[in-house]
Amino acid sequence: VRKAVVSTQSTGIHSSVSCSKEDKMPLDETNNESYRYLKSVGNDWKFNVEDLHPKMLSRLYKRFDTFDLDSDEKMEMDEILYWPDRMRQLVNATDEQVEKMREAVRIFFFNKGVDPVHGLTRENWVESNRVFAEAERERERRGEESMIALLSNAYYDVLDDDGDGTVSVDELKTMMKAFDVPQEAAYTFFEKADTDKSGALERPELVHLFRKFWMEPYDPQWDGVYAFKY
Questions:
Q1: Tell me: the pLDDT tens digits for 32-59?
Q2: How far is CA 78 from the centre of its chain?
Q3: Distance CA 97, CA 227 (A)
Q4: CB–CB of 23/121 below 8 Å?
């Protein structure tokens, strides 16, 4: 068994995961940032796969397979950063906005269990998502910064192409194209996210939909958000 400690660029994120020849290891506060956070605040949440609806399991695994570009059943940080780099080619954002988005992606997925050195295996992906969801609920209860909001707001700044402080359907199409999601998903996503029916998406609406679709217990009303890709 060896132990590596590294930092990703400018994030202050450190890897301190002991690794061996076996990819599978129990997740806990020693090798998962969300478990570490929960333990630090006295939350003893436990993962039980039977708590997840089969359609939520399917949704999460489809998401993993999208990110796992080389299909080796391991998600690496470089593979994740491929997606914001795709968006860079499609928007008129400043270098500062794009780097802020990349930084938010690094922090978000580190908290979701993607180790900067060892990545995250497919078999640990679902548990990492669920403990991250519990950590988000704990942060909300404590009035702390949401990782979902951190990532959503970084995307929002890049998507707001005309700088009017909102995101339109056309601007949302950019996100769908960048993430290889059918273009019609821009309309289904927009319809579900625009809760005040203003015809434009505000920051809280984007955060709310991301949370509902990926973090909360399965609800069939959200099935079509990404045109049934997930």
A1: 999 999 999 999 999 999 999 999 999 9
A2: 14
A3: 28
A4: yes
